[in-house]
């Protein structure tokens, strides 16, 4: 059975690991040694025994982990240099013990500049998860030098300078190639700016995972492509009427491409019947491009008929903000059926806020800022908080798009663990709207439809990029990859 990966706030891990270790009968220093061992094993597996290693150690337990890694490297005759950005004599507790063990093993530290390009890999043990202020001074300068070197970086627990709760870079942050996260994966590693800094994530429970999870409620959940397997298989006697009737409304004059993209995405996501109401100028193009979709004009009589006909509806792609668009929004808001609002429907909603438990809204950061009456910077500085505020104000399920898209249903927050920067092109959000309304029409519950829809859309993009490359990806490319994403053999292999 599919299970999303639990995520946690830094405070939860800091408090919970002490209790978990005690319950497991493990000393905290032993836990530090286990963390260092995990990082060292990954180092050897990824870069080999012949690598020349630079370990950058700060103060605190993160620095202590670094000294454990360096000690293990010495014992395996691996060439290692340790640079201390925190005077070792000021270390306390387990970090001090780790340093003393490193020295006893024959190690020594330097505090002078090094030529980073002379090394094969850098181990980042500068700053831990407790960071909450801007990185400055010598540490900031060191981080900039590491990033400029383009030498691969293995970050311990979290890339130095990245906020473990929000995913925001606090001034300067290490751009890691790989990050090994301990005990519980920090929620800030998987959304927002973290996508630029975390690299490939690896998890190590250090032998206390079960004890930790038993006493800490996850702050969020990280979805994987295996979620797509929850799409129901077709009954042998299925017919088009049993697979859902989806309605899409949008496409003002000059904006027809958006609603045509959404309609085709809906069709390719499995809806039995798809109807699209749009400006008269778009109907011929729609019928030529996708004759399987029933296109008609968005006159009020046709709108009311189709609203009665459909199982779920979507409003917004290419809608515009005319008086007619406003009337359409008011009409749709009075319908007690599952619905998706996107694009201009969200801009109009920001002018007339209302609550609807039967709705998915899909704002990008700019639209989210308008809906919350704040700045885009405020939204992106704490995406978890922003998506919670949006759900509280507007109800239903909120999909906050971006790197590491968030889905909040009022009870839990989920993070999409797929997608890529090639998706930063026009029409991607329209395609997502089509996928979502298709799943709703097929009878999938609101929250699950939002999660699966976001994942299916993102995973289809990943499959396309894997085959053709990152640059030049279009919404139409993603749509044509939807069926492959649904039926991907990789999903079966990963079970």
Brief summary of the model shown:
Belongs to the NnrD/CARKD family. This protein has 495 residues and is α/β, with parallel strands linked by helices. The protein has 20 helices and 19 strands.
Structure write-up:
The chain has 495 residues and is of the alpha/beta class. The chain folds into 2 domains: 5-221, Rossmann fold (3-Layer(aba) Sandwich), CATH 3.40.50; 226-493, Ribokinase (UDP-N-acetylmuramoyl-L-alanine:D-glutamate ligase), CATH 3.40.1190. The protein has helices at residues 10-24, 28-47, 60-75, 93-104, 137-149, 194-197, 209-215, 256-268, 280-289, 300-309, 323-333, 344-351, 365-372, 376-381, 383-394, 428-441, 446-468, 475-480, 482-486, 489-493; strands spanning 5-8, 53-57, 80-84, 109-110, 121-125, 153-156, 178-182, 185-186, 200-204, 220-223, 245-249, 273-278, 294-297, 312-315, 339-341, 359-361, 397-400, 406-408, 413-416. It has a 12-stranded mixed sheet, with helices on both faces. The protein has a 7-stranded parallel sheet with strand order 4-3-2-5-6-7-9, covered by helices on one side. Helix 8 links the parallel strand 11 (245-249) and strand 12 (273-278). Residues 13-214 form the YjeF N-terminal domain.
């Amino acid at each position: 059975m599919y299970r999303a990966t639990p995520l946690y706030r830094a405070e939860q891990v800091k408090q919970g690991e002490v209790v978990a270790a005690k319950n497991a009968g493990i000393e905290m220093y032993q836990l530090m040694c286990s963390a260092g061992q995990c990082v060292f094993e990954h180092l050897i597996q990824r870069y080999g025994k012949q690598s020349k290693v630079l370990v950058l150690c700060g103060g605190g337990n993160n620095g202590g982990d670094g000294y454990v890694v360096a000690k293990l490297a010495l014992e395996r005759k691996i060439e290692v240099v340790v640079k201390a950005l925190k005077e070792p004599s000021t270390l306390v507790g387990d970090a001090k013990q780790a340093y003393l063990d490193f020295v006893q093993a024959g190690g020594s530290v330097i505090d002078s500049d090094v030529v980073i390009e002379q090394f094969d890999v850098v181990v980042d043990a500068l700053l831990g998860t407790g960071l909450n202020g801007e990185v400055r001074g010598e540490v900031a300068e060191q981080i900039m030098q590491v990033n400029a070197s383009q030498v691969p970086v293995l970050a311990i627990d979290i890339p130095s300078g990245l906020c473990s709760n929000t995913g925001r870079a606090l001034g300067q942050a290490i751009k890691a190639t790989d990050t090994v996260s301990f005990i519980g994966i920090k929620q800030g590693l998987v959304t927002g700016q973290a996508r630029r800094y975390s690299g490939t994530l690896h998890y190590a429970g250090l032998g206390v995972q079960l004890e930790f999870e038993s006493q800490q409620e996850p702050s969020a959940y990280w979805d994987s492509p295996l979620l797509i397997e929850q799409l129901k298989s077709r009954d042998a006697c299925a017919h088009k009427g049993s697979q859902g009737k989806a309605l899409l409304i949008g496409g003002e004059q000059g904006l027809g491409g958006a609603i045509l993209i959404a309609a085709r995405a809906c069709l390719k996501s499995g809806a039995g019947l798809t109807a699209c109401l749009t400006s008269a100028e778009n109907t011929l193009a729609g019928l030529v491009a996708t004759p399987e979709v029933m296109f008609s004009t968005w006159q009020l009589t046709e709108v009311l008929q189709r609203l009665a006909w459909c199982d779920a509806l979507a409003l917004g792609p290419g809608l515009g903000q005319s008086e007619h668009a406003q009337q359409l929004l008011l009409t749709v808001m009075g319908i007690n059926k599952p619905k998706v609002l996107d694009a201009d429907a969200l801009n109009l909603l920001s002018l007339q806020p209302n609550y609807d438990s039967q709705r998915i809204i899909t704002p990008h950061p700019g639209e989210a800022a308008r809906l919350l009456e704040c700045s885009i910077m405020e939204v992106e500085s704490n995406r978890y908080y922003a998506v919670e505020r949006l759900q509280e104000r507007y109800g239903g399920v909120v999909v906050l798009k971006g790197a590491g898209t968030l889905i909040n249903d009022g009870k839990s927050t989920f993070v999409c663990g797929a997608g890529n920067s090639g998706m930063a092109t026009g029409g991607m959000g329209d395609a997502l709207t089509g996928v979502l309304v298709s799943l709703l029409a097929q009878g999938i519950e609101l929250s699950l439809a939002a999660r699966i829809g976001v994942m299916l859309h993102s995973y289809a993009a990943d499959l396309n990029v894997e085959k053709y490359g990152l640059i030049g990806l279009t919404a139409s490319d993603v749509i044509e990859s939807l069926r492959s994403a649904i039926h991907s053999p990789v999903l079966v292999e990963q079970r």
